[in-house]
Amino acid sequence: DGLGPDDDDLLTSIAQFDLLSNVVAIGEAQLGHPVPGRVYYPNFARFHQHRIEPAVERLLSDADMRHALFPLGDGELALALVDIDEKARQEGWRFDGFMGWEHTPVGDFISASLPESTPDG
Predict the structure, then answer these.
(1) 13, 74 in Cβ contact below 8 A?
(2) Does residue 70 come out as left (phi exceeding 0), alpha (psi in the -120 to 50 range) or beta?
(3) Average pLDDT of span 109-120
(4) Residue, of 45 and 95, whose pLDDT is higher
(5) Do 27 and 71 touch, CB atoms closer than 8 A?
(6) What secondary structure, in 3-state letters, does the chain show?
(7) Would the pLDDT of 119 be above 50?
């Protein structure tokens, strides 16, 4: 898309693609499709969330994108983002990278959309 190999936007684009591939992999696993081996790995976690957050915010607001990449409900997506957050923080901590979704529109979506826990679970 007109980006050179030294263009910082190229790195941002790759990090966003990686994050979205994580969302898709989790969604496919939740739909019952076989996903061999580990379902996903947050390679993007070495970088700060400002690189990936625009892609997640678009996923939350663009119905066509959401349907194509994660055709499950808000609760399932919130759970997927929490899982990604936990793994990405573990990796990001080692590299002073990803720090989480707190105080962001993504964090607000998660808080509003997480399914309520049941008394037995």
Answers:
(1) no
(2) beta
(3) 78
(4) 45
(5) yes
(6) CCCCCCCHHHHHHHHHHHHHHHHHHHHHHHCCCCCCCCCCCCHHHHCCCCCCHHHHHHHHHCHHHHHHHCCCCHHHHHHHHHHHHHHHHHHHHHHCCCCCCCCCHHHHHHHHHCCCCCCCC
(7) no
**8 A C-beta contact, residue 45 and residue 98:** yes
Dihedral sign of CA atoms 60, 114, 17, 55 in order: positive
d(CA 68, CA 101): 23
Indicate the residue type of 65.
M
Give the rounded percent of residues in the chain with a pLDDT score beyond 90: 61
* Distance between CA atoms of residues 83 and 57, nearest Å: 17
Span of 11-20, 88-97, 103-112 with lowest mean pLDDT? 88-97
Q: Structure pTM?
A: 0.84
Contact 28, 71 (CB under 8 A): no
What is the largest distance, in Å, between two alpha-carbon atoms of the chain?
54
